[in-house]
UniProtKB/TrEMBL annotation:
PANTHER family: PTHR39159, UPF0374 PROTEIN YGAC. This is DUF402 domain-containing protein. Keywords: Hydrolase. Pfam families: DUF402.
Length: 230
């Protein structure tokens, strides 16, 4: 996955513009209150234009995820110490069904679609985060803990409110950022209530191209982009 691979054109300064469908890129997250990349997921581009970036995270994809230094999974650690114990990263694979990720330019959230086996649609998941920063090899963001689950009957509910509160207590986000995340969440809820895009766009009926290969995790998955854009 060399920088610039399968990109339709590159803007001045070297940041990626639009990728062709079928391109393989990285979808990454920085650690909170830090600069290190601690989540990296190779994905295949479904659509990329001025309205939306849609990518497919295929089952079995090798990814990078954070763990505690003793190997304990992050979510197995009690909430009170989950964000204060030392961490490292490890390679793992995305098992189960794949995930379709959708992000509109500049929005402080992405929308993920999940299915049960047999392509039974399960739910949408609104992941509150920094707007994606694009670079030649993919996109980077920072997770903001608070999420929203949206069900096929259009009902919805907040997720991970306890983690959002704990992150503030542990100094991973200040009051200003927490307020901005709360505002973003309320804006996302308004989109859900009026059933705006991407919920109204029929993405739950989408299926991946069977000819696509599962992207490989590159050795330099944590490389620092020379230029980024939003």
């Amino acid at each position: 996955m060399a920088e610039g691979e399968a990109v339709t054109h590159v803007e001045a300064g070297g940041s990626a513009a639009y990728w062709n469908p079928g391109s393989q890129i990285l979808w990454r997250y920085r650690e909170n209150a830090g600069d290190r990349i601690h989540i990296a997921r190779p994905v295949t581009v479904v659509r990329d234009d001025s309205e939306i970036l849609a990518v497919w995270l295929a089952p079995g994809t090798e990814c990078v995820k954070p763990v505690l230094t003793d190997g304990t999974p992050v979510h197995a650690e009690p909430l009170e110490s989950r964000y204060t114990r030392p961490r490292t990263v490890q390679r793992d694979r995305w098992f189960g069904t794949g995930v379709l990720k959708l992000a509109r330019p500049g929005e402080p959230w992405s929308v993920w679609l999940f299915w049960e086996p047999g392509w039974q649609f399960k739910n949408w998941y609104v992941n509150l985060e920094e707007p994606l920063a694009r670079w030649a090899g993919g996109v980077d963001s920072e997770d903001h803990f608070l999420d929203i689950s949206v069900h096929p009957d259009r009902t919805w509910g907040w997720r991970d409110e306890d983690e959002f509160a704990q992150a503030q207590r542990d100094g991973l986000m200040d009051e200003r950022l927490a307020a901005r995340v709360g505002e973003a969440g309320r804006a996302a809820v308004e989109v859900i209530r009026r059933w705006g895009p991407p919920f109204s766009d029929g993405w739950q009926h989408w299926r991946p191209d069977p000819a696509w290969s599962v992207p490989a995790l590159p050795d330099d998955w944590d490389r620092t982009p020379a230029h980024v854009s939003t």
